[in-house]
Every structure is written in C-alpha cells, then in structure tokens.
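User: As part of a screening pipeline, I want to sanity-check one entry by hand. Below is the sequence and the SMILES for zinc ion. Please return the complex as structure tokens so I can compare it with the automated output.
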Amino acid sequence: MRSLRGDTWWDFRLRRSGNGWRRLVRRLSRLAGFGLMFSAGVWVGMLGRRAGSTALQVPAQAALRTGPSAETRGGRVRRLYLDEFRPRSELRAAQHIVRQARFPCVNVHTHPGGLSDEQIDEMVRVMDAANIAVSVSLDGRTGARLSEHLHRLTARHPNRFVVFVRMDYVGDGDPARPETWDVNRPGFGQRMADRLTDAVKRGAVGLKLLKDLGLYLRDAEGRLIRPDDPRFDPVWQRAGELKVPVLWHCGDPVAFFRPIDRFNERWEELYRHPEWSFYGKDFPKHQELIEARNRVIARHPKTTFICAHMADIPEDLTRLGQYLDRYPNMYVELAARVAELGRQPYTAREFFLKYADRILFGTDGVPPMSELIPHWRFLETFDEYFPYEDNPFPPQGFWNIYGIGLPDDVLRKVYYENAARLIPKVGEYVQAYREARARGG
Ligand SMILES: [Zn+2]
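Assistant: Here is the complex for your manual check:
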C-alpha cells in the first residue's frame, strides 16, 4: 500500500473513472446549458471572485460550450473548472532526465507487502536500472508473518531488502472490537517490546509506525491515544537496546489540518480525498502531534528515530532544523515530500547541506522509474520548474519543482551512507551490491 499521503496517478485515474457518472451528467447538462449550476459543487472561481455567486452570473452562452475546442464563444473566454486546468509550461530551460542515482541508493521507505513474486522481480529490475542497492520494506508484521514476508522478498533477491515491522496494536484481540485490542490492556508496552525482540531475532531491522498513532488509534473509551502515551515507553526503550531504528510517520501535511476552503493550498487534493482531512472533530492540531512525537524522541535519547516524510513538517524547514539541533537521535527521510522540498529550492538546498548527516532517501510505495526520475533530478540537477511526478495532474499540490544540485559528498550521505550507519545489515548489503556491480553482475 502506498501511504495515504501519496496519491498515485493511477489512483487518481481510478477516482476519475469512479466519478464518471458525475462527469457524464456534467457534460450532458452543459449541453443543455445548465452545466455551471449542476457542477457548482466542484466549481472553483479560478479568477478569484466569490465562487458561490458568480456561477449564476456567467452569461448563458459560456455555459453552452460543447467541447474542449470551444474554449471561447462569442469572443468570451469561458470559466474553467479547477480539475480541468492543465497549463503547459512554455518555459524552455535545460532539462536533465536522470535515470540512475549517481551513487548506490537505499530507499528507506517502500511498501512491497502486497506484491506477487513477479512484481517483486519487476521491482528489483527497476532498482537495478535506477541504481537502488537496497529497499527497506515497511510492511513487516510481527511473529510468523514476518518470516514469510522476509522469505518472499529475499529468497530470490538476497541482500536487496531489509524489513521493518509494524507496531502490533491488536495482538490477540478482535480486530473489529478496539476495546479488546492488546494496546488497550495493561502491560502492552512490555509485550510489544518482546514481540519486537522476537522480530529482530527473525531478521527485522527496525520498527515502523503509521500515522494511525495520534490520528486513528483509540482507547477503550473511544479517545484518541496520544503519540507520547507512556504505555509505549517500553517499546521505544527496547528499540534502543536492540539498536534498531524507529521509522515514524506522525502527522500529515499542514494543509490537511486546515479547513477545506478556497484558501487551502491543497484544496483540489482534499476535494478528491476528503477523508484525508484532519480538520475539526476531535483531531489534534498538527503542531500538537509534532510536539507529542518530539517529547518521545527527547525521552529516549538512546533510540534512533527516523521521522518519515521530512518529519511531517517539510513546509517549515527552519523549525525542522531546530528540532534536529535539539534532538541528536532524530533523523528524517524524504518520502513523498519532493513536491514540498522542490518548491523551496534555496531553503531546501541549505537544509540538505547543513543536515546532510541527518537525511535519508525514501520514496514511499513501490516507485516505478517514472517516479524515481523526478527524485534524481531534484537532488542532482539544477533543473527548473519541472513536474514532481510523471502525472498529467499534480497529485499533491498544484505546483512544479526545482532541482537543488547537491554536491557528491552530500548525495553519498543521503543516498546510502546515513542508512548504512543507522539501519542494521544495510551497509553490508550495499557493499555486496557494489561488488556485484563492479563484477558486472
Ligand atoms: Zn509509507
């Protein structure tokens, strides 16, 4: 599963076809001249006027449009729906389509859990072509299921995968009844810590946390469990003793915690995925989540925390830098945040230079080559204003990005040196990969 954060382009396609009936109604209704009224629900005033009232003020002839070629009629330019807007950049700047990482790379954030053997083979083919030495699967489960997952990934591809296990909140409880879950019984922390020890014996090299801690996971009374709840302390401590890192997705983009209104910079994304909104209800504020996570990091200085998605505050790299200064055991990885980083190239470049020892490479999902290329371009070139995904529609914010042209020493750290230092087995596997490549294998 790709994280809920990363909207893939086929996902978007599916959603579009899922909405096909509505589009058809809209098309037909436009033919009948009622289009703007029918689709008022998805209509956005691209020209910045008050949407609600202008819809009915548009001259009838604009609503009579019958196809994409009829952008104007009677000398008037019709209004556009935001989801129809596909500007084509006329910029003619240098382009470098980088297909391979310049140095062997470790992708610390992937989800190959649901792949068939053939799909795993294909994933490894893409890794070979893109110079990805090792992928970290974040889809491990505790117990026997971990051994199955490890076997499936490594049987035909030794040295190319390592696995993190997820926190097991349910245990032997009934998945449909949260009040029976292990996390809601006394002693959970110790039991989960022991499951982690068992997982490491079976070959796991880390613990993965999804954003459900803080946003979905509830106690027996139905209250959200806070990320810094003391019941988890034995788990964090055990991870430190076992010397395996905790990779933690805590939070989501700031815009997801704001009202879904015309000021929201990710409005079109939230329109497609209203279930991604954490505004209102009993959801914590974005900053409350970040601070709760930080308290855990502060309480367990001997445990390594790799905070996923640029610690879920890529929007504010100054603040993120302050956290990294404050917590030496905190690291970040950049999965699914190239869009955020690449729209602030000057700040992002400074950040990467200053915190080169603290940043790891990640993508999320199972990235095809088309998704890797923008990552290499962003990190290695000074290309300007290019799409952050090979996608006709920007899936995570309506903008293009810029490369930050990192120097080789920084690229080496971000691509593999940091991962090799923090994650067991990775250094050894990268070395094996380099030797195999040198032999032409
Ligand atoms: Zn993920």
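Points to compare against the pipeline: The first strand starts at residue 72 and ends at 73. Strands lie at 72-73, 76-77, 105-110, 132-140, 161-166, 206-209, 246-248, 305-307, 330-333, 359-360.
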